[in-house]
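Most newcomers find our protein records easier to grasp once they have seen one. Each record describes a single protein and holds just a pair of labelled lines. A learned vocabulary of local backbone shapes supplies the integers on the structure line. Nothing more is needed to start thinking about how sequence determines fold. The record below serves as our worked example for the rest of this section.
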Amino acid sequence: MQFMARHTFSSDQRRKAKALPSRSSSTPLQPRSVLQRLAPVVHGGFHSTHAEDWLDFSSNVNPYGPSPRVWDALRNVPIGRHPDPRATPLRDALAERHGVDARHLIVGNGSIELIYHLAVAYLRTNDRVLIVAPTFGEYAAAATMMGARIVEYRTRPANDFAIDVNALVAQARAVRPRMLFVCNPNNPTGTYLARDDIEKILRACDSTLVVLDEAFVRFVANAWDARTLRYDNLLILRSLTKDYALTGLRVGYALASAAIIEALEKVQPPWSVNAFAQAATLAALDDEQHLRDSLAALARAKIALVNDVTQLGLRVVPSTTHFFLVQVESAAEFAQQLRARKIVVRDGTSWGLPDFVRIATRTPKENARLVQALQDILRDT
């Protein structure tokens, strides 16, 4: 058996090698300065510190879980080879479901990935981005990452966070943003704009890319169909992780003109959606009955939960979704009191709402445990 000979360094080579790591006098390579303004976005959901017996009311996910067909599909995923680089089978299935050409649809690793791709593809330094707030924090984060300037149209608690569309349109005309984000229904407020309102925004912003985020639209009773809108400056975002309960697999998609989708494809890396996510989503899409039944049960549970919370004397902000805001004296303190009881709700402080928590409805049994915890907290204060 032959062995590779050991390389012998000269004393001069050893001296130079030792000197290399000590060049501390030079200025280290710095990232883009705009990243100094980029703070981590706060999200709900469990973390590694939470045990299995904790209850999560902080994440707006279907608590009834995915279709049983998903588990069967996952067992047969070939993990020893690359998934389809553009999730083509899933893309084709979604395009057929929506009655559009596949060139008008892109699938991503959750809708968050597509938000960041939009920023990379379209935003330039000092572009203005108008955001209807308070809302999902990743819109501002993605825009800030590209050096864009954030402008907010901010709704107020006094009128239950209602959106004055005329005021929003006036602000958009004054600001002339490159991009406008409207979460509909909005997270965390649960407000929902009608079709006429969205069309009014689109007509007023014909030189703006309007991003209509419908991540939670399946939770809205009698929602109107945004897919029928025909505007070249519109992109519709959809999440498949909230309603179908595929949160850990990360799947979302966007509908837009072929030109917008082509731009997103250019900045999206291949194999963005893993094989498990593709297979699970295809299986979930084939079981619409499970989705309809679980969402109907969730809607009933939400009505009962809101009634119970209201009877405790807490103000609940009206919401079209299964999640809703509750006004408290101190969101941080209130959330901590619930964590002491192994229950997690969403502290509204990161939205600029330090006296609100967001609660996402779960199953009746879990909701009863929350209501009991709320009773105990209110009794002790």
Summary: The two ends are 79 Å apart (CA to CA). Residues 337 and 377 are 7 Å apart (CA to CA). The chain has two domains: 55-62+289-380, 68-286. The domain at 55-62+289-380 is CATH 3.90.1150.10 (Aspartate Aminotransferase, domain 1).
